[in-house]
Design goal:
single chain, mainly alpha, 9 helices, about 75% helix, transmembrane, membrane
Length: about 220
Amino acid sequence: MTSDRAPHTASREDPKLAELLGGRAGAVDASIPVVAFVLAWVVAGAAGSAFPINWGAGAAIVAGAAVAGWRLYRGRRPRAVLFGLAGVVVAAGIALVTGRASDFFLVQIVSNVGSALAWAISIVVRWPLLGVVVGGLLGQRTRWRRDPDLLRGYQRASWAWVAQYVLRLSVFLPLWAADQVVLLGVARTVLSPVLVGLSVLVSWPLLRTALPADHPGIRHPR
């Protein structure tokens, strides 16, 4: 009887990964400067401006600053907020230097390549990044690594994040090569939040099914 109750008790004690990881909110916030860039670029171009990229870059930076101010007001960590704003400024700067509007998305593309590699390597070297993130949020530091079941579960669930970065790249790279600025904006705005949300949702069953029935849950590494 005890073993039958264990999975239910563990699942009640376990926090939801969506609550820990933040779900799609961060991805939505990050999409706002992208929308501002594309809209300003399109409107300025349609109005006959000789420098539509300048308008797009300016709109993106203003939108990024507004999002950063809102994040700080909501209590987000200043360093994370500044990193987000810096990414927008760098992206805008690259587009201004190259004169190619689609290059605004280069920072995002390079970031996705780096993230896919980092998550894949972390799995191979047995330091899955999902475990690092969730373990840190739960105050476990590295204790989860001494639990073979949890380690295996975090490795399995981390592949969902590798897959979503690879999927993003399979969409972004052809559009960037074809200089499809509007479609890049649409893909970045729609695809990224959806994939982040799906990764969060898929991570939990992948992690939980790797644990034996009597495992006490992610809060309690064995």
